[in-house]
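Re: the multi-chain job from yesterday

Posting the exact lines I submitted so nobody has to dig through the queue logs.
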Amino acid sequence: MQLHGKTALIIHGDIPLGREIALALGMEGASLAIHVSNPKAATEYSLDIAPSDKQAVEVYASTLVDHTAVKAMFDKVRARFGGIDILVFNAKPQPSDTVKSLSVDDLKLHVDTDVKPLFWCAKEVSKLMVARKSGKIIPVYFGISARGDADLASWSASGGAIFGLVKCLATEFVRYGINVNAVSYGYIEDVAFPPHVRTAVKDYVDYLDIRRAGTSRDVAQAVRFLATGMSDYMTGQNLYVNGGLLL
Amino acid sequence: MKAEGDPSVEDEQRKHAQLGLVHDKTALIVGASGVIGSAVARLFVQHGATVCIHYFKHQHTAQALADELSTAGRPCTVHQADITDAAEATRLVQGAIHDMGHLDILVNCAGIARDGAIQFLTDSEWDEVMSTNVYGPFAVCKPAIAHMSKRRSGKIINVASVTGSTGQGMRTNYGASKGALMSLTKSMAHHLAPLGVQVNAIAPQIIRGGVSATASPTYLAETAKITPAGRLGEAVDVAGPVLFLASPLADFVVGEVLFVTGGLVTHRV
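And the result, C-alpha cells for all chains:
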C-alpha cells in the first residue's frame, strides 16, 4: 500500500482506461478524485470498488475546454482533499485521419482536447504541489507520435506536443520535488479508438513480438509505478507500454 | 480495499499491493555485491522474492548480504563466478536454478569502468570493460534464456547506463559497452517476447558508490549540480525501476530502456 494518505486526480476517469487507472491507484491506498466530462457521467459513475475508511472517492464533472472551468474543478478538489499528490492526465481518444483529409480545425480540435487541458491542469496542480514540495504528474496518451502513422496525423501531432510538454514540465518542476513522466501506450484493445484504428489493433497483434494487444490494465500498472516512490529518481521520461511496437 | 466484479483482478492487485510485486518469484542478481545489485536484492526480498546472489571478487560483502536477507523459509544462496568465462556463467545459472528450483527473473548488474582518454586507452582496458559489461551479461543470458523459454516465462533486466546513449569523454570503452548492452537488450526482446520472456533495461546516471565512485569529488559535485534533481542517484533509485520491470506491472513493456537520471539529459533520450 504505497499510496496511503495520497490523493490522486484522474482526468477522464470515466473512460475504461481511466477506470483501470483509478482501480490501480485505489488498490495502492490512494484517495481518488475522478474527473468526468459531464454531470450525467458523474451521476452514472461507479468504480466498482469499496474504499477503506481511510480513503475517499469523489467524482467531479467538468468541461476541459477553458481554463476557468479547469481551475474551478481544481478548487473543488483542493477544498475537499486539501491538495493533490498525483495528477493523471488521461488524454481521451479523438477522431484522426491522414494529412490530406484533415483540416486545420481538425488538428486544432486535437490540440485543444489533449494538449491545452494538460497545460491548464499542470498549471493548476503545480500551485498545490509546489507548496508541498512534492508531487507526480503523469500524462497518459497514445504514443503513435514516436513512429508516426499515415492515418493518425492529428493524433501524432498532439502526442508530440505532449511529449515535448512533459520534458518542459519535468525540468521546470523537478526543483520542487515534482516528477513528471508520461505513459505512452500502443495498440490497446479496450481503448475507444476510431474504427480504422481498431482494425489496425488487430493487424498489429501479429506484428508485435509479444503476440497480443495491450489492455487498459497494462497501462494502468505503469501509471501505478510512476505514481509511487519506486520512480522518484525518474523525470522527463516517456514510459512506453506497447508490447515492443517501437522495436 | 475491495474490488467487485472480476475476482482475479482483485486477487492479483491485492497480492501485489500487500504481499509484494515479486511475491514467490525467484531471481538471480548478477553483480549483487555492488551497490546497485545489493539494493535490488534487498528490494526483491522485501517484495517477496527468493534471491540468489552472485559475486566475482567480494565474497565477504556477498555473504554478509545473503546472511542479512536469508529467512527461515527462504534462504538466500551465494555463487561466485567470473561471468566473462562462458562456462562459469553457465555454471552460475545452473547453480541458481538448482538452489531455487527454477528461475523467474535475471538481473544483470555486474559492470566495471576503466576510464581514460581514448588515445591512451589500451586494448586490454577496452577488452576488460567489454568482457564484463557486454560479453558477461550475454553469457549469463544464454543459459537463462534456454531455461525461461522452455517455461515460456521470464524477465531479464540489464542495468546499462545513460552513457550508452549520450556518450561521455574519457569513457569511450564504458559508453560503447553500455550502448551495446542496450542494443543487445532490444534485440533479445525482439527474439524472446514470442517465447514469453521479456527483456528490458535500466539506464542510470552516476550512482553514488557505483562504478563512478572513484571519480574526483569535483566531478561528482559538478554532475550533481547540473542534474535537475540536484543530486546524484542512489542505488535505491535504480532498484525501484528494476523491480517494476521484473514485476507483472510491466507485462506489456518490451525492449524498453528506462532512464533513471533525475532529469539529466531528458532532451537526448
